Amino acid sequence: MPRPISATISLPSLSHNLRTVAQQLDRAGVAAGRPRPNIWAVIKADAYGHGINNAVRAFGQAEGLAMLDLDEAVRCREAGWTGPILLLEGFFEPADIAILDRYRLTTTLHCQEQLDMLRSARVADPIDAFVKLDTGMSRLGFGAADYRAAYEQAQAAQARGVLNALGKMTHLARADDDPLATQHQLQVFNQVTQGLPGKVSLCNSAATLTPGLWASIPDSQEQWVRPGICLYGSSPFAGLSASELGLRPAMTLSARLISVRSIPAGAAVGYGHLFTAAQPMRIGVVACGYADGYPRHAATGTPIAVGGVRTRVLGRVSMDMLVADLTPVPQAQVGTPVVLWGEGGPSVDEVALAAGTIGYELLCAVAARVPKIVI
Ligand SMILES: *Cc1c(COP(=O)(O)O)cnc(C)c1O
């Protein structure tokens, strides 16, 4: 028998989350008197650990898919996706341009080196591109001073038949926690791109789910939002849970108890003896550890569900096992199901908070050795 651990991926929940985001955008569009933006469903990092093929199946209603690995983009085409695909980092070397051409991929253009590579490129069909502006993230994109010259170079590539439709793009650093910083980035975007033709793309999940944000951009051009994490049922906001946002967990990481024991007062648990029992108690060993992608920094008290009852992790997480407090689950025995996060257990965001990280990291880090079950 295989080790009793698995990650269940729910296609209906993925589709539900996309629908929930689209409906919220519809309402914001009605309020603003304009059509809702198109959605690039972001499926980078193997669809945040949920599997590219699953994402392609579940996100059929999205207008486009966005990711950054060329191989993943090709896999989307091979899985039958015929709509637009955006490469969030664009291409990395001249040979990649032939792949963009062959698989009809939309590229981001964020640096002069990419524009230089386009200068000598030949394509069968011109390629769609978004020219990225750095409005205050200091990651990818042309600076405000260089942006318009970069855009003109892209227009020259368009005139040469290398590029097709051009768009304008930026990325927000604090859409989840600082409206003023975001407002400033949007102002920079509007100022620098003013009068340049093309579609607009700015919003990650937090910005997409902030009412009124996308509609604050002048409405002359088609807009594309880029939600990622919310589609997987994790919240982009620290103070607002995924369920409050109407989102459903798309991944449930579950395992079973493989050992149950009673320990006396004073017994210490696990490596480093980080937890010591104050009174006699029952504990259970769960077939999940950091080699499965469960965070090693999840401290005593991290929520976990055993037999449908919420309890806590005790002591340090080992490579292949962790220990749960069975005090509130006296009926638990070897074989009792355990939910680490997801449907019937704590949210991935609660576990992430207890481990000092974010849901994104946990979803992406589920190990290859954990079998995925698709429902
Ligand atoms: C990852 C990413 C997104 C999606 O971000 P979420 O916070 O997961 O919604 C959008 N745009 C870019 C450029 C990204 O890298």
From TrEMBL:
Its EC number is 5.1.1.1. The active site is at K44 (proton acceptor), Y271 (proton acceptor). The keyword Zinc-finger does not apply. Residues 250-375 form the Alanine racemase C-terminal domain. The modification N6-(pyridoxal phosphate)lysine is found at K44. InterPro entries: Ala_racemase (IPR000821), Ala_racemase/Decarboxylase_C (IPR009006), Ala_racemase_C (IPR011079), Ala_racemase_N (IPR001608), Ala_racemase_pyridoxalP-BS (IPR020622), PLP-binding_barrel (IPR029066). Coiled coil: none annotated. Keywords: Isomerase, Pyridoxal phosphate. The keyword Isomerase applies. NCBIfam families: alr. One of its GO terms (biological process) is D-alanine biosynthetic process. Substrate binds at R139, M319. It comes from Pollutimonas bauzanensis. Its cofactor is pyridoxal 5'-phosphate. It comes from the Bacteria. This is Alanine racemase.
